[in-house]
DNA sequence: CGATGGATTGACAATATTCAAAGACAGTGG
DNA sequence: CCACTGTCTTTGAATATTGTCAATCCATCG
């Protein structure tokens, strides 16, 4: 049995027993390929499956009736998407692929089994959702209490951090399959204004963004501008059951 | 053993067995009184206790180094606070009382026991955290994609909904122990602008706010302005273990 | 009793959005 | 293969929204 990036993702939270890992493997049976820009879960409709992302990127989004939209999260290899959605009778947000992607659907019943028989895994799932909450909080602060440049700088810093984590190395350049209008929907800004802010960051020699590729010119400066802290995500797993 | 509002809160998510309920009672041993405006958990410091709120109100907040601040949540009787905080080595946000309050501290170890021996309760805790996430998402959309009046109208609608839920009745008037500057920190706006918006809502005969008391003049109109939906919080508990 | 912090309002300044216009580019259907 | 369509990119100018500053009043708290 190969160690997938999904399993490695879980292992980042805590050490797992062989039987825990064997159970996790059941989440990735039945991979399925989706083309880019496919809606996987539709806002407002019931969702009865969750998905492990094996390859590719997805966006979690919230659409308002008047067309305004907010991107809530970008997800990629190893992430579970749909956790929030299946907890409600109707999905409170939609999910779509950003690139061609391989997703592994699995039923809610696996969660039942996990809570009943794998308490340590259930705890890890809980920790993971606390982490997700922490990122959402960062998003709330970003939108509520930072201006446009700071927001953009902070968002790019977050993306950089995730890219490092995924690659296990530090590279000054990284891809995110996103367009400027989409970036604007992440940041709660208009597309036009994001162009201006990108320009400003380029002129101040902090970051460049060209067609899905970010190039960091001055990471320290960027983080200072964004007031970015990377120390805050140290999870405490000491309380997990054995 | 009296049924506290904390236990009733849990029972809203799913039917519980007698032994589940007996276990929950252990969370409320050791009540402790705090005066208004006491910091219960400090941002950046380790927190090793969680708290059940027995009486009073608390605010969950995020302070930036430059003094800007964002209120993330308002909590009251029956809520657990500190769940996110104890999951990290250092608290990612602070918690303070807004009124005189009675809180019951309990150690993380109770969570360990819950996950190990009360899988159904663990599942309910998980559902509760999904609900909290859903509210955070609403907050993100509010900040990212709604203008000042809409934000305020939406926030007031949320508060009204919670007040109804707590009181189990519908009243056009309800208290929230909050000042305008604090309201501003909830909404990501300046205090001055909140005054303007409150005035606007009063002139359009939708809501009034005087010294901690909201009076709804036209709830339908307010919700329409806010694009408020109350149908989205129907949790699905069918997957919980027995 | 003075000091502090909230409430309130207006004028002015900064910030972000909308509108407009034009080129590039990818996908579609003929 | 090509014209057509829509979306993305880019920029400037006009407009709207929101924040800052300043001043006054008021209540509360030592």
Task: Give a concise summary.
The structure is a homodimer of 242-residue chains. Chain A is of the alpha+beta class.
How would you portray this structure in words?
The structure is a homodimer of 242-residue chains. Chain A has 9 helices and 11 strands. The longest helix of chain A is centred in the middle third of the chain and has 27 residues, at 119-145. Helix content of chain A is 43%, strand content 21%. In chain A, strands 1-8-3-6 form a 4-stranded antiparallel β-sheet. In chain A, strands 2-7-4-5 form a 4-stranded antiparallel β-sheet. Chain A is globular. In chain A, helix 6 (148-167) crosses helix 8 (191-203) and helix 7 (180-187) packs across helix 8. With 242 residues, the first copy, chain A, is of the alpha+beta class. At the A-B interface, strand 5, helix 3, helix 4 and helix 5 of A face strand 5, helix 3, helix 4 and helix 5 of B. Chain B binds a DNA duplex (30 and 30 nucleotides) through residues 147-148, 179-181, 189-193, 195-196, 199, 211.
Mean pLDDT across the residues of chain A is 92
Query: H/E element string of chain A?
Result: HHEEEEEEHEEHHHEHHEEH
- The side-by-side strand order for the widest beta sheet of chain A comes to 1-8-3-6
This entry's quaternary arrangement is: homodimer
Structural class by helix and strand composition of chain A:
alpha+beta
Percent range for β-strand residues of chain A: 15-25%
What is the CA-atom radius of gyration of chain A, in angstroms?
Answer: 18 Å
Largest interface, with counts of residues having CB < 8 Å to the other chain, equals: A-B, 60 and 60 residues
Helix content of chain A: 40-55%
The rounded distance between the terminal residues' Cα atoms of chain A is 23 Å
Count of individual beta strands of chain A: 11
Low-confidence stretches of chain A: none
The number of helical elements of chain A comes to: 9
- Biggest sheet statistics of chain A: 4 strands, antiparallel
Q: What's the shape of chain A?
A: globular
């Amino acid at each position: 049995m190969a160690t997938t990036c999904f399993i490695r993702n879980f292992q980042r939270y805590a050490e797992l027993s062989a039987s825990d890992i064997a159970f996790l493997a059941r989440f990735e049976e039945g991979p399925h390929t989706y083309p880019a820009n496919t809606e996987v879960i539709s806002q407002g409709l019931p969702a009865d499956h969750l998905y492990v992302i094996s390859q590719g990127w997805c966006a979690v989004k919230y659409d308002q009736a008047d067309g305004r939209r907010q991107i809530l999260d970008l997800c990629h290899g190893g992430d579970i998407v749909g956790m929030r959605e299946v907890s409600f009778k109707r999905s409170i947000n939609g999910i779509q692929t950003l690139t061609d992607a391989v997703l592994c659907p699995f039923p809610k019943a696996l969660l039942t089994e996990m809570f009943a028989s794998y308490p340590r895994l259930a705890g890890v799932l809980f920790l993971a959702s606390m982490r997700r909450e922490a990122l959402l909080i960062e998003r709330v602060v970003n939108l509520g209490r930072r201006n446009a440049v700071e927001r953009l700088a902070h968002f790019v810093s977050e993306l950089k951090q995730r890219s490092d984590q995924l690659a296990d190395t530090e590279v000054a350049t990284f891809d995110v399959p996103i367009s400027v209008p989409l970036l604007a929907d992440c940041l709660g800004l208009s597309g036009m204004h994001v162009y201006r802010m990108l320009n400003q960051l380029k002129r101040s020699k902090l970051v460049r963004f060209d067609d899905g590729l970010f190039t960091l010119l001055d990471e320290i400066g960027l983080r200072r501008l964004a007031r970015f802290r990377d120390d805050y995500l140290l999870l405490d797993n000491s309380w997990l059951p054995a």
